Each structure stands twice: as C-alpha cells, then as structure tokens.
Amino acid sequence: MKGDLAPGSKLSEQALAKRFGVSRGPLREAIRRLEGRKLIERKTHIGARVAALSEKKLMDIFSVREALEGLACRLAAERITDEEIADLKRLVEEHGRHSDVQAGSSYYQEPERRDFHFHIVRASRNDWLFDLLCGDLYDLLRVYRYQSSTATGRARHAYEEHRAIVAALAARDADAAEALMRDHIRNGRAKLNLGAAGATTSPIATKNEA
C-alpha cells in the first residue's frame, strides 16, 4: 500500500523470503494469492512483477468506475435499508477517528466490510454491478484509491464527501447520491500521481493489506 515496491518491479523470492523471515513455500503461496487479486503479474521467462496500469488504462477504468458507482449509489438510495444506513454512518464515523484521516495524510479502508464503497455497491442489490466493481479489479483499484488519498488534503476531503453521500442515501435522494458519488470519484482520480510518457507512478503493494 505504501509503494515500497514500485509498479513493474521484479519480485525476488530470495530477497522477499529473507525480508519477511519465511520459507519459499508460504511465500510462493502468498505470491499466487496476490496474483489472483491482480496485484502481481507473472510472465513467461520474466517471472513475477508488481502489477502496473498505464495512464490510459487507469483513466479508462476510473471513467467506467465513475459511471458504474454513480449508478450503484443511485440504486442504493432507492433500495438501502435503515439498518444499512445506520451501519454506513457508524463506519464513516469510525473512519473519521483514524489518526491518518484526522491528520489528512491518508485514508486507508480495510477491504470489503470495512470499505465504504463496497457497502454501497452491495446496497444497490444489483449482482451485475457487484461483480464488476467488487470482482477481479477490486483489490488493484483499492491500491490506486489509497494512493490518491495521500495527496495533500485529499483524505479529509474524501471523508467529508463520504459523509455527504451517506446523508443523500439517508434522504433517499437518488439524484444527489449519484451526483455526489460521481464527484467523489472524479476528485480522487484528479489526485492520482501520474508520471509522464503514459506511465503511472502510483504505488502498488505486494504486501497483504491486512
């Protein structure tokens, strides 16, 4: 998550085994699982590398994500239960107490049940949206979401945007909910640290996010 291993960097099993004090067996299983989560890429005659997205591919994905999560938020406003709204409010309040969010340095969310976006997509009650947004690219996109939150001032702004989205959901205001979610994703995309020549400098981790 911190970008200790840069996008595209080759993984040395020997170096990683020594770094984490583990044998090759558990390490290879960890790499296999991270490969399944799209965080690591393996190529013939090259080996395993930290996954990387080109600037164009990343921008294309975020454009699709904006449209789909906007729709998910609209549907959630129509279908979310009072209990789910209460859970979301508690979750956002919990996030707001994190020292990194209060300091404005970053906004880390644990996967799935501790992830604000995961809750909203699930509340849309649309299996297709859930599969698209919380399937193959979920973990990889979470890395880029975290990276954008480390931009100066972004963590606090993202937190306030989450609160506004919850308020729109609680009011069952589908138009506002969709508009706020779209704005939220556009703002996050604008904070991504993109390098020149089409290469992204966004950090991608090989560590488990737990």
What does this structure look like?
- Strand 1 and strand 2 (47-50) form a beta hairpin.
- This protein has 210 residues and is mainly alpha-helical.
- It has helices at 13-20, 24-36, 55-79, 82-96, 99-103, 116-123, 127-133, 138-149, 154-170, 174-190, and strands at residues 40-43, 47-50.
- The radius of gyration is 18 Å and the shape is elongated.
- Helix content is 60%, strand content 4%.
- It has two domains: 13-50, no CATH class; 55-190, Up-down Bundle (Four Helix Bundle (Hemerythrin (Met), subunit A)).
- The protein has a two-stranded antiparallel ribbon.
Tags for this model:
2 domains, 210 residues, mainly alpha, disordered C terminus, 10 helices, Four Helix Bundle (Hemerythrin (Met), subunit A), elongated, single chain, two-stranded antiparallel sheet
Q: How would you name the CATH homologous superfamily of the largest domain?
A: GntR ligand-binding domain-like
Strand content: under 5%
Total beta-strand segments: 2
Please report the number of helical segments: 10
What is the count of structural domains?
2
Query: What is the SS-derived class?
Result: mainly alpha
The best one-word shape is: elongated
Assembly of the depicted chains: single chain
Biggest β-sheet strands, sense, barrel: 2 strands, antiparallel
Relative helix content? 55-70%
Question: Which CATH architecture of the largest domain is right?
Answer: Up-down Bundle
Strand sequence of the main sheet, in spatial order?
A: 1-2
The stretches of 5 or more residues where confidence is low (pLDDT under 50) are 195-210
Question: What is the overall pLDDT average?
Answer: 88
Helix/strand order: HHEEHHHHHHHH
- End-to-end C-alpha gap: 10 Å
Which CATH top level class of the largest domain fits?
A: Mainly Alpha
Find the CATH topology of the largest domain.
Answer: Four Helix Bundle (Hemerythrin (Met), subunit A)
Cα-atom radius of gyration: 18 Å
